[in-house]
tRNA-dihydrouridine(20a/20b) synthase [NAD(P)+]-like protein
Amino acid sequence: MIRMTKARVDLPCSIKIRIHKDLRETEEFVRRALSVGVDFITVHGRTRRQKSTESVSIEGMKLVKEVSTVPVLANGDVFSIEDANRIVEATGVDGTMAARGILENPALFAGYSTTPWECVETYVDLALSYGTNAFIFHHHLMYMFERSMSNAERRTFNSLTTIPSILDYLEEHYDLDIARMRAHRAAQKIKE
Ligand SMILES: Cc1cc2nc3c(=O)[nH]c(=O)nc-3n(C[C@H](O)[C@H](O)[C@H](O)COP(=O)(O)O)c2cc1C
């Protein structure tokens, strides 16, 4: 027999919601989330039916913040630190969360407007150290190179299918040197 106990697990629990086109429904949804004890709420400022090309609802995200008694993060269309600040200011939320923006530029919240080469190197290093598959490896790099590659470069890069061929490409076209990169990172760690 399984004995049910009322154990409390001390882990934060959050919820991510979208807004409803009827904002009273959004408000009700927030109240329900609060009633079950969520620690914070992330709100994607689009309805379920809206495409990511449509702009987010500042009004909807602001309402979620007003109704909520726990911290609220706004999500949608954060592609720069300026976007994040603008949304925080307009809605009063406690922070923002990015998906496409951070995939393309992992240094976005550090204030970089374009993906620094160090991000690419760090990603390559971590992916190779922890292990990944060619599809995911390729996909993350495609995101990171989205704005910097020309169409012709992208066509060649997108056709690569194995990790060694991707590394060869980066060595040839971007001067990636894994041994140098690791030595540099190890020296930085010692300094810290
Ligand atoms: C590659 C990718 C995967 C995603 N996967 C999920 C998911 O599993 N669950 C979810 O709620 N939203 C998912 N989303 C949506 C994002 O979390 C986010 O709400 C949406 O992209 C809007 O934020 P953005 O404008 O910063 O991209 C995904 C988005 C992307 C780009």
